[in-house]
C-alpha cells in the first residue's frame, strides 16, 4: 500500500507510538484498533505495519520504552549516603518523572494483563529493577535503624503505588504546585518508613 504523502519514517514512527499511547490510555487496549491508530496518525491502516508488526508489539514497545527511560533517569540520580535523603530523593524523582507522563503510567500499570506471557516477563523484569532501587534504599535505612519496615518488598510496592497515584489526580491548575506535592509526599513516605 502506498505511503501517504508527507509521511516519513523518522517522524511517522514516533507519531504512531504517540497516537497509540493516547488512544489506549483513553479507551483501553482491547477497544483500540490498528485502523483507529492509523486514522489518528493520518496514514493508511496498512502503513502501520511499516512501523510495528502488530498491536501487541506496539503495546509492548510503549511499555518497554517507558520503563527503560524511567530506569535511565533514575540510575542517573546521585546516590546520597543518608538513607533518609535517598528516600526523599526517590519520592520526589518518582512524582516529578511520572506527573508529566500520565498516559504512559496508566498503560504501564493497567494494560499489563494484555501482554503476551513473553512480553509480560520482560516488562515485569524492568519493573523489578526499578523496585529494587527503592528496596535497596529501604534496606540500607533499616540496617542502620532509621527505618522500621518488617517486609521490605511490601513496603516498596506500597510506596510506589502511593507515589504513582499522584498522576490520577494532579493538575497544574490545582491549589498546590508539583514541587509542593512532591515535598509533601516525600515527607509522608519518610514518616511511613521511619523507626518510632
From TrEMBL:
DNA-binding residue intervals: 33-52
Q: Which GO terms describe its molecular function?
A: DNA-binding transcription factor activity; transcription cis-regulatory region binding
Q: Does the keyword Transmembrane apply?
A: no
- Recorded superkingdom: Bacteria
Swiss-Prot/TrEMBL keywords? DNA-binding
Q: Which residues form the HTH tetR-type domain?
A: 10-70
Tell me the InterPro entries matching this sequence.
Answer: Homeodomain-like_sf, HTH-type_TetR-like_transc_reg, HTH_TetR, KstR2_TetR_C, Tet_transcr_reg_TetR-rel_C_sf
Task: Respond yes or no to whether keyword Hydrolase is given for this record.
Answer: no
In terms of Pfam families, this protein maps to:
TetR_C_24, TetR_N
Protein's name according to its UniProt entry: Transcriptional regulator, TetR family
Amino acid at each position: 500500500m502506498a505511503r501517504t504523502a508527507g509521511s516519513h519514517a523518522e517522524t511517522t514512527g514516533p507519531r504512531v507510538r504517540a497516537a497509540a499511547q493516547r488512544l489506549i490510555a483513553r479507551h483501553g487496549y482491547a477497544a483500540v484498533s490498528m485502523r483507529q491508530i492509523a486514522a489518528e496518525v493520518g496514514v493508511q491502516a496498512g502503513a502501520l505495519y511499516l512501523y510495528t508488526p502488530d498491536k501487541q508489539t506496539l503495546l509492548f514497545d510503549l511499555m518497554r520504552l517507558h520503563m527503560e527511560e524511567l530506569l535511565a533517569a533514575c540510575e542517573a540520580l546521585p546516590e546520597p549516603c543518608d538513607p533518609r535523603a535517598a528516600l526523599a530523593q526517590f519520592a520526589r524523582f518518582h512524582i516529578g518523572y511520572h506527573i508529566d507522563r500520565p498516559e504512559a503510567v496508566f498503560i504501564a500499570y493497567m494494560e499489563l494483563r494484555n501482554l503476551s506471557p513473553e512480553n509480560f516477563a520482560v516488562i515485569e523484569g524492568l519493573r523489578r529493577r526499578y523496585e529494587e532501587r527503592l528496596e535497596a534504599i529501604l534496606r540500607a535505612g533499616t540496617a542502620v535503624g532509621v527505618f522500621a519496615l518488617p517486609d521490605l518488598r511490601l513496603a516498596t510496592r506500597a510506596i510506589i503505588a502511593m507515589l504513582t497515584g499522584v498522576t490520577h489526580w494532579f493538575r497544574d491548575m490545582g491549589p498546590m504546585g508539583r514541587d509542593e506535592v512532591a515535598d509533601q509526599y516525600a515527607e509522608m513516605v519518610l514518616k511511613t518508613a521511619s523507626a518510632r
